[in-house]
């Protein structure tokens, strides 16, 4: 009977230890899930910023093409190459 009581105490001790370890692991899983959520949010924000950057880059390219198209027309209209704000001023 003493042997059975000793074995039961040992089993009870192991179960308590495993329950504590399980609790600690659950807390760690919860913390890692929160960290993953923050990382996912950061990744979404980074993707949004990347997309916005690409949109701005595309807009700039279009503007540059328009400006490049306008530049030769201005030179044709004003062959003397007067500075802006001086157009129409004759010496």
What's the gist of this structure?
This protein is an all-alpha fold. Helices cover 84% and strands 0% of the residues.
Helix and strand composition category: mainly alpha
Radius of gyration: 37 Å
What is the N-to-C order of secondary-structure elements (H for helix, E for strand)?
Answer: H
Task: Quote the average pLDDT.
Answer: 87
- Supply the number of helical segments: 1
* Helical amount: over 70%
Largest sheet: none
Separation, N- and C-terminal Cα atoms: 123 Å
Overall shape: it is: rod-shaped
Give the low-pLDDT segments. Answer: 86-91
Number of strands: 0
Strand content: under 5%
What does this structure look like?
The chain is mostly helical. It has one helix spanning 2-77. It is rod-shaped and about 115 Å long. The termini are far apart. The model is unreliable at 86-91 (pLDDT under 50).
Task: Set down the secondary structure blueprint.
Layout: H1 2-77
Keywords:
single chain, 91 residues, mainly alpha, 84% helix, disordered C terminus
């Amino acid at each position: 009977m003493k042997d059975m009581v000793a074995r039961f105490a040992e089993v009870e001790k192991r179960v308590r230890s495993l329950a504590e370890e399980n609790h600690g692991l659950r807390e760690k899983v919860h913390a890692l899930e929160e960290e993953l959520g923050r990382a996912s949010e950061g990744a979404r924000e980074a993707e949004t910023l990347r997309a916005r950057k690409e949109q701005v880059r595309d807009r700039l390219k279009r503007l540059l093409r328009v400006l490049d198209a306008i530049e030769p027309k201005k030179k044709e209209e004003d062959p003397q190459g007067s500075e802006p704000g001086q157009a129409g001023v004759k010496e």
